[in-house]
Specification:
alpha/beta, globular, about 30% helix, two-stranded antiparallel ribbon, TIM Barrel, single chain
Length: about 375
């Protein structure tokens, strides 16, 4: 296939009727649409519930008044423009304001809306902040999608980070291996960049984002292999989304195929309650049951996946439940005293986010922000 052609207007999607194009334009006027002809051909247009279609094509239900533009409170952790520092050893460098495609359930869709200025294309201030904070050993390049940048631009950013002695791990968060694997297989300079900067004691990690096994096409797997051959370590993280991967069979196939291709299934995320995400988010307890049913049927390698929530107070593992209780654990906390702490709640089958639980049964320590929420409730 030649270089994929990007599509940013529904009028360029011939499979949609004129009526559908006009109707869905109501959605794209609020939340941008972006895809490409490679990814569009993965859709079974005869199936109105096709999971790939659901992932990339707008849905009128996105206009429901539900959710928050910044559901994880990222703004409160911005230290300089384009850099977030929430967890002591890790900094997020938001270096791109474009993705190869826009997932309809994106939790950062605010970045692609008009008049947004959270992204800083000049990363100098962020790099200076990282250099001045020796506790930061791990930098995640994100956005947007860093691999949408030119290879020369990406090289310049990674070179600056590699010049900081205490930065040992560089992670690149990207869905491009699924959206446009030709970006990888057709660019030897990108692979050379990985070879140059993934060192024996300082690795580059690719945090891939495959949501559904049908995204693992032959060319996508070839792209993953090329990255592995160049020395990258690849881990996959993705949310559980209604109508896309909300059944054990799909997750088992996805995780097993990723493991066989040399990619570690890393995190399964609870979909964040972002504005527009009502048709994609499901209750936590339903998702947990699906997760456990899937994980019980995978190989030991795929069992490494964890079910997580990126809450404003920290990254929280959703550990398990009994007939009456559900258990959470801080994997990383914004306040260090909460690291490793357990939260135990009375079950709530309608809860889609931690804040929806109000009957706090037991905890050792919880953040003052979360405690205040439950006291008020």
């Amino acid at each position: 296939m030649s270089k994929p052609r990007y599509i940013t207007s529904l009028t360029k999607v011939p499979e949609l009727s004129e009526e559908e194009q006009q109707e869905l334009t109501q959605v794209t006027e609020q939340f941008d649409f972006r895809s490409n002809d490679y990814y569009q051909q993965l859709i079974d247009w005869d199936d109105p519930d096709d999971p790939i279609r659901r992932l990339i094509m707008p849905d009128l239900r996105e206009l429901e008044e539900w959710g928050d533009l910044d559901p994880s409170g990222e703004e409160s952790y911005v230290k300089v423009k384009g850099l977030e520092h929430k967890y002591s050893p890790t900094a997020l460098l938001l270096c791109s304001d474009v993705c190869a495609g826009y997932c309809r359930y994106c939790f950062r869709k605010r970045l692609f809306m008009r008049d947004n200025d959270e992204i800083e294309k000049d990363v100098s201030l962020g790099v200076e902040y990282i250099a001045a904070h020796p506790e930061i050993t791990n930098v995640l390049l994100t956005g947007g999608d860093p691999l949408i940048l030119s290879t020369s631009r990406l090289r310049a950013i990674i070179a600056q980070l590699r010049a900081i002695p205490h930065v040992r791990i560089i992670r690149i968060g990207t869905k491009l291996p699924a959206f446009n694997p030709y970006r990888i297989v057709d660019d030897p300079e990108l692979l050379q960049l990985i070879r140059d900067y993934t060192l024996p004691d300082k690795k580059i990690y690719i945090m891939s984002h495959f949501d559904h096994p049908r995204e693992l096409t032959d060319v996508a797997v070839a792209g993953l292999q090329a990255l592995l051959d160049a020395g990258a370590i690849i881990q996959n993280q993705h949310p559980i989304i209604t109508g896309i991967n909300d059944n054990p069979e799909t997750l088992v196939e996805l995780w097993n195929r990723l493991s066989a291709a040399g990619v570690t299934p890393y995190y399964l995320f609870q979909c964040r309650p972002a504005l527009g995400n009502a048709p994609y988010t499901m209750p936590i307890e339903r998702a947990l049951a699906i997760f456990e049913a899937a994980r019980s049927r995978t190989s030991g390698l795929a069992k490494r996946v964890r079910y997580m929530m990126s809450h404003r107070t920290g990254k929280i593992e959703i550990c398990g439940m009994t007939e009456s209780l559900i258990f959470f654990k801080y994997h990383s906390a914004a306040k260090r005293e909460n690291d490793g702490r357990m939260l135990i709640f009375e079950r709530n089958p309608e809860a889609a986010w931690l804040d929806d639980y109000t009957e706090l049964v037991d905890t050792h320590v919880i953040s003052s922000e979360l405690q205040a929420h439950h006291t008020a409730a």
